[in-house]
Amino acid sequence: MKPLAILASVMALAIAAPAAHGAIPADPRGGETIQFNVYRGNSSFGTHEVRFSRSGEELVAEISVRLRAGVGPLTVFRYEHDSVERWRGGQLVALEGETLKDGDRFPVAAARNGSGIVSEGVLPEGERHTEELPRDIIPSSHWRGYEEDLRRILNTEHGDVMEVTITDMGMDQIEADGGTIQARRIRLEGTLTVDLWYDENGFWAGCEFEARGQRIRYVRQANPAA
Questions:
Q1: Which of 8, 67, 154, 161 is most buried, taking the most CB atoms under 10 A from its CB?
Q2: Contacts of 72 (CB under 8 A, 6+ apart)
């Protein structure tokens, strides 16, 4: 697989409820925004943003990812992802989104139906599919965090199930919010290994992974709880 194709695949992994071992879960009131600048090596690679709002009893998370790599004015890689998640009582009730990857578009729609979540999407090979998932399935959008006993998550690119292993790595000091902060590090192992950090309020604070020797790093621009 080409390096940039691997970078696109990891975005499916590239989120309430308590994270592992004492991390404080985020509880967005509405109006908060988590915004990252994304770097590939030392070069700017794009942005990733999560915006929260409230609609009655529902928490709404709007996610926007824009990544681009090029040589001068020539674009050699472009990735865009937009999705809207609706949560009620700490559980996902609906998700709708679309991903542009390597020139192809992949729509996803998921909604609570009886005792579970019904998800519809398009697999990388172009095959449409429908799956019935557990009511408590967690999407791969990272902002919510992941418990250590979690084994499966909902792939927000293709609407299928992803097998994962979650490990709590303890506390770290990371670059964020124009300085450095203390944050809990969670490792998500799936297609690739992704390290995620969450601050003292439970908000997603950082992300880092490698793909074919290329280091991808997220730097948060401001504390969403401020």
A1: 154
A2: none
Residue type, 188: L
Q: Is the dihedral of CA 153, 196, 48, 181 positive or negative?
A: positive
Distance CA 221, CA 73 (A): 26
pLDDT tens digits for range 161-217: 999 999 999 999 999 999 999 999 999 998 889 999 999 999 999 999 987 678 999
What six digits make up the tokens of 142? 């990272």
* Residues 189, 44, 146: CA angle, nearest 5 degrees: 25
Q: Which of 69, 90, 74, 88 is nearest to 17 (CA)?
A: 90
* Tokens 């409820």 found at: 17
pTM of the model: 0.87
**Structural contact between residues 218 and 207, judged by C-beta atoms closer than 8 angstroms:** yes
| DSSP 8-state code for residue 191 | S
